[in-house]
TrEMBL record:
Location, primary (coarse class): membrane
Identification of the protein by name: Rhomboid protease GluP
Subcellular location, record wording: Membrane
Source organism phylogeny: Bacteria, Pseudomonadati, Kiritimatiellota, Kiritimatiellia, Kiritimatiellales
GO cellular component, one term: membrane
Length: 252
């Protein structure tokens, strides 16, 4: 197993230090940094950022840091530290926003769960067929896209249908996971948003597909590196038909 990456190490240390300051030295950190449900009334914009570094219990921080430790390094190596930080913070912030839209006045949200869920969602977007081993199911690896689909479905059920477990910010998990998936998918398919706008703007009519020769000319080094990286991690069987076509065009 490759070592922990710098950005992941920084985030874990920061979360642990904040937890120690609060619970060992009894500093009122949660009172200052937790996200209130009606944060906009007090203009508490900073809490959208700080709440994800505060945790309510040892088990809370343990689960989040384990997720960050095991999935984070792979994502940082793929995205780079800068985009990894963006992934972490945008998932956490949008998770907090999603939670605050549904929360009742007087409630507060803490924890990195939304940010970590975003990292997991991003992992599923970039490595959908990668096998994930869960602690409580060590002998039954699950494909990343299946695991994230189940988790998102559960969080949706908890948020909008019938909450089974109380005291959990399921809306933050749900929004964080979706945000992370969308962010990573936009990196994996940089033309996705533009193509979607074109289709919507033209009544769903798409442009004719370019010839293989013109497609090969438009291939970038980043595209080839991404495909080769995917082959190295997941094998040839994980390539989509379009990726196979791109690889063939690049080798002609």
């Amino acid at each position: 197993m490759r070592g922990i990456t710098p950005a992941v190490r920084f985030l874990i240390i920061l979360n642990v230090v904040v937890y120690i300051l609060e619970y060992l030295f009894h500093l009122p950190i949660a009172n200052l940094f937790a996200l209130p449900a009606v944060w906009w009334k007090t203009l508490s914009f900073g809490q959208l950022f700080t709440y994800m570094f505060v945790h309510g219990s040892f088990s809370h921080i343990l689960m989040n840091m384990m997720g960050l430790f095991f999935i984070g390094p792979t994502m940082e190596r793929r995205l780079g530290a800068y985009r990894f930080f963006i992934l972490y913070y945008i998932s956490g912030i949008l998770g907090g926003l999603g939670w605050s839209l549904l929360a009742s006045p007087g409630q507060y949200c803490v924890g990195a769960s939304g940010a970590v869920m975003g990292i997991l969602g991003a992992f599923a977007a970039l490595y959908p067929h990668a096998k994930v081993v869960l602690i409580f199911l060590p002998f039954y690896p699950i494909k990343a896209w299946i695991l994230v689909s189940v988790l998102i479905g559960f969080e949706f059920f908890q948020t909008f249908v019938h909450p089974v477990f109380g005291g959990i910010a399921n809306a933050a998990h749900l929004m964080g996971g979706i945000a992370g998936f969308c962010y990573a998918y936009s990196i994996k398919n940089p033309n996705f948003i533009g193509q979607l706008k074109n289709k919507l703007g033209k009544g769903g009519k798409s442009k004719p597909k370019p010839s293989s020769a013109s497609s090969a000319a438009k291939l970038s080094k980043e595209d080839i590196d991404r495909i080769l990286d995917k082959i190295g991690k997941e094998g040839m069987g994980a390539l989509t038909p379009r990726e196979r076509e791109m690889l063939k065009a690049a080798t002609r």
